[in-house]
């Protein structure tokens, strides 16, 4: 047995388990080990092998970037590569994203990174943002900021008092689930931009359609959020595809007229 220095794997694992609200017993069952072993790891009395660290991290749904950090804390090399998206080895990923974005037309869709920065978007998203302040569309483009900034889509959103907090709460939840100082700052910035929070008798929680006016048309959109479920590359695992879909037939017809594709 070895004693681990403060701030190493023991503290990191305990922090993730607490964040996920999982008991030592439940974590042990998920990872195929014993509660005693988990307790020894968290107290620094035992350092697990590389495979056990990965099993524990996977059981806690730790993002692959942070799994590398856990491995480093225990003295192991990172297990998950991190490549730029333009790396030739990720060509199939880029091709898949391009197909999805194009195939979703005429409806808007974007691919963002873990901070909500735009990686790619289709012509539908270009149509939505054609009147946005060019400064907001200068890389890195924060999609949540584009949605809620006065120079962005905010003036065009009819139900801004509901939609804004839908966006703020989602960014805040992500910053809690996968801690990031940048996400926390973004959540605070967006909260300051949002109108006062109001809950009407018709409030539907997360099921909030985006209702906006653009190009002389009224659009009602719902959204889906997807990610690569089996990615082992850090960059790919952190990508998110947000696709907007028409909430009614009139919106579908309007988007077909507005988007040139």
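Q: What amino acid sequence fits the structure above?
A:
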């Amino acid at each position: 047995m070895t004693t681990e220095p403060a701030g190493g794997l023991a503290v990191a694992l305990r922090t993730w388990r607490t964040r996920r609200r999982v008991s030592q017993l439940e974590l042990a069952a998920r990872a195929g080990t014993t509660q005693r072993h988990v307790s020894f790891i968290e107290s620094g009395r035992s350092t697990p092998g590389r495979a056990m660290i990965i099993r524990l991290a996977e059981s806690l749904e730790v993002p692959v970037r942070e799994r590398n950090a856990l491995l480093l804390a225990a003295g192991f090399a990172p297990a998950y590569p991190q490549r730029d998206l333009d790396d030739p080895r990720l060509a199939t990923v880029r091709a898949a994203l391009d197909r999805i974005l194009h195939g979703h037309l005429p409806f808007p869709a974007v691919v963002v990174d873990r901070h909500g920065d735009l990686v790619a978007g289709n012509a539908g998203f270009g149509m939505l943002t054609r009147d946005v302040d060019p400064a907001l569309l200068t890389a890195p483009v924060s999609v949540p900021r584009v949605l809620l900034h006065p120079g962005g889509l905010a003036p065009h959103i009819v139900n801004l008092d509901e939609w804004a907090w839908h966006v703020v709460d989602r960014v805040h939840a992500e910053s809690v689930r996968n801690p990031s100082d940048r996400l926390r700052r973004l959540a605070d910035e967006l909260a300051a931009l949002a109108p006062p929070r109001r809950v009407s008798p018709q409030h539907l929680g997360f099921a909030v359609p985006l209702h906006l006016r653009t190009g002389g048309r009224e659009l009602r959109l719902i959204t889906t959020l997807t990610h690569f479920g089996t990615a082992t590359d850090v960059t790919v695992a952190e990508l998110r595809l947000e696709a907007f879909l028409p909430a009614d037939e009139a919106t579908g017809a309007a988007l077909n007229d507005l988007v040139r594709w």
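Q: And what stands out in the fold?
A: The radius of gyration is 21 Å.
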